[in-house]
Amino acid sequence: MWTDEGDVADLRTSYSKTSNGFTPPGVLAENIRAYNIRVGTAGDAGGWVVWDDNTLEGEVYATSIPVGGAVPDTDPPEPPPTNVGGFLPPKNTPKCTSSVTIKPGVVAAAQGGGCFDEAPAGVWTTKSDVNVNGVKFVGSKDSTSVSVNTAKHTITATAGVVQMAGPLIFSKDAGTWDVDGSTVFQDLERFGIKLFDFKALGEAAVTFSSGQAKIDINLSLPSPFDIVTGGTTLTTTMKKGLSLVGIKLGVKSLSIGAFEMRDLLVTYDASNSTFTGGVFLKLPPSGEFSELRVGFRQGKLVRLALTYGGPPFPFTVYPGVWIKNAGFDYDGTNGFALGGGASIAVPTADGPITFDAIGNPPGTGGGFRYAQPNGGDPRLDLAGTLAFFGFDLASAHAYFEPTNAKFGFDANVNIGFPRLGVHGAVAGEVDLGNGTFYAEADLEGCVLICVRGAGVISNIGIAACVEIDLFVTTLEFLVGYKWQSGLTAGTTCDTGAFKTPPAGSGPGPDSVTIGKDGTIFTPFHSDLTTYAVDIPGQGGVPLVRVHDVINDETVALDPANPEEPQSSEHMVLVPSPATSSVRLVMIDNSPFGGNAYEVTTLPSSRAIATAGSYRSLDGRRVDSPGITVAEMYPATTVTATVGGKGRERKVTWQASDLVDSGRSLRFVETDADGIQHVLGGSDEPTGSLDFTVADGVAGTRSIEAVVVNAQGVPISTTPVATFEAPGYVLPAKAAQLKLAVKKGKLVASWQGKRSAAWRVLIALEDGRRLHLTSTRNAVTVPSVGKGDKVKVTVVGVDNAGRFGKPATAKR
């Protein structure tokens, strides 16, 4: 061990194992100040050297001596030193051949001071360990040897010689390497080798080139990518050994549960021992691919992330569910899960039902999580803001289960104003095919006072039906919000169409009447009663003022805020821009002789729409306001039967009190899991509706008739029929699965139906594990020999991500 001349110089070493000669010198450390050098070595020539730099700081330095001694400085190596600091190595001989050039650029170097002997001509043999461009041949016994043939360009190792590169062991058996071509080694699994904590599988192919060797190898990937292998090419050189710079792992196609991926490519970063890269992800079961970032460390997935909102967004994750933009993060605690943020739309890219979960992970007010657990079905959970036709419901949670096409939600509702509105919590499930839904709710309805009661939420709107017990009577009213028109209010939970009773000059004996001038007269009654009236405008909402004559009470719309409801002690005005009208709700507490309500417009108002004209006392022709009153109708009753068989059925019904009341019907199918599908609707009192049984679990299903009033609010739900439904239609098992190898390619073909796509898992003898997705009934794999062992498994996948039975073939 010595340094060259100069204040700063290289630290060099030379080693003699048998005292028959020293190895050519090699550099351990470059450009250092080395004083008080101390050396410790073992029998394999490896060890440590320690020194200081002779400064006041007192720092001590150390470096290791590799097993077999330092790599020679030059190619070919310099001759052994004859004199180092006046010391003459004993029995030093320049006749030892320590390296042999097999062909230009490929050199075999004997390690630990060993020498090659030539016999016969062109064949050089040594019992020492040999390094060929970084590939090592390590003998464990005196009986082992390594020979190189400079004429045939081969390397031959006897049994017991470990042939390796870094931690990769190719063989321990006798064999010959082809330096001009590629040498292939099979069944690497038997050595239990790991590289970066990834297991080496199948075969490795080694090819020598100028100054280096290339190693093609398949490595198993960590969960959840462990169903496939990643192929990579490693480089090794005599001086640096196996290089860990620029290593890439690539997989063309794979799928994990409901996720489909392609073109996984990661690169090793030696600075932090991490593989990082990307993969293209497609959420199930259709849509475009988007690139996301991945990372592996110590054989485990440590990073999987994507934040993206450009093309190809929006795309469908299921027919009727669209992702408009997204941001992902990874959670691998149980199976495979993605979390982050997303913007969801149902049933089209623009809604009308949207869910904004961009932002923080679930539990912090926003975000989503898509999980494929180890032992269950995939599920998408969201937290954020749910919107219907642009109206936000706060603190919402939603979930999507692609296995049974179920999209459910729950949210907090706070619609309207303190004295007029709907408040509480709602929950429901969406028919993805139609974008419709209907669910009951527990809500608080407010018309002057707030009372909890039964409620409904649907794709039309949300409403609460409440009753107030006043001891002498029960006051019933409805308040709601239609997504496309705004707040609405009614006098009972079954308010029919707004129709105008015959006009008169005063109150009738038992009904509300409208005077020719628009005055509203309420009849005599003995208890508290509510009424609802529509006041239409000409070309928009009129700004009206209503005066309660008996109570001398007035309520008027605010010209500065014309769409904001206004209220007094006994009256509420609800403007509706969608219908260009104002809804007047009155709580009449004048039991003696009835009451009168005068309706006028403010100076800046549009005119009230007219309904004809009349001649005044002075002979003038005067327009009569088109004010209408909510008229009551009996409850609608519905009966129905179901005919047909299999998946094609027909529901036939009869209903009462539909036409005059302005009501309509909606028929809803509910399966054994409680998932609802809207079959269709009608406003006819009798009729039939053909429908196809929705895909779902087998068993008894019920059909309910939902009665919807003229304001579009469901007011009753009645079970009307049941029938036995078949279960899910899963993809058929692949039939006639055949494997053939032609011109170095494997062709797997099969017959099958009812599949949106086919998942194909292929295990090859060379260690490749491929997971392909195909919409055709065949796949082709390159680089497969006629004698190679192959196992292929094919399974069909439907549009909901459900799998059929697998089919397997071997050769």
TrEMBL record:
Q: What is this protein called?
A: Unannotated protein
Q: What is the lineage of its organism?
A: unclassified sequences, metagenomes, ecological metagenomes
